[in-house]
Amino acid sequence: MSDDDYDRSLLIGLHKMAAQSGDGLAMAMYERFADAETVRRDSAEIVPLPGLHQRPAKPMSARLPYGEATIISFPAPTWQTNALRKKG
């Protein structure tokens, strides 16, 4: 996980300002910081495995080592031949 959520030096500066003004925000900031650390420590990091769920660049037919495909023409079925004779 990344630590991009907040800047620690900024939090320290805000903590000092809250302590100087005496408005009671210092403890709230400390609790927020401690909660964030607890969540970060207890949460699982999800790491994607390379190649596991990625589609291949070429289709399967292009990756086969056979070469060019040969198309075989079969004779039309008897029922189709008879139907064409009746029409024409």
Task: Explain the overall architecture.
The chain is rod-shaped. It contains four helices and no strands. Helix content is 52%, strand content 0%. It has 88 residues and is mostly helical. The N and C termini lie far apart (74 Å). The protein has a domain at 8-42.
Secondary-structure blueprint of this entry?
Elements: H1 8-21, H2 25-42, H3 60-63, H4 78-87
Helix pairs in contact: 1-2
Contiguous low-pLDDT stretches (5 residues minimum) are none
Number of strands: 0
Which bin fits the share of residues in helices?
Answer: 40-55%
Rg, alpha carbons: 35 Å
N- to C-terminal distance? 74 Å
The main pleated sheet reads as:
none
- Element order: H for helix, E for strand: HHHH
Mean pLDDT: 76
Shape: rod-shaped
What structural category do the secondary elements indicate?
mainly alpha
Percent strand equals under 5%
Number of helices: 4
What's this entry about, in short?
With 88 residues, the protein is mainly alpha-helical.
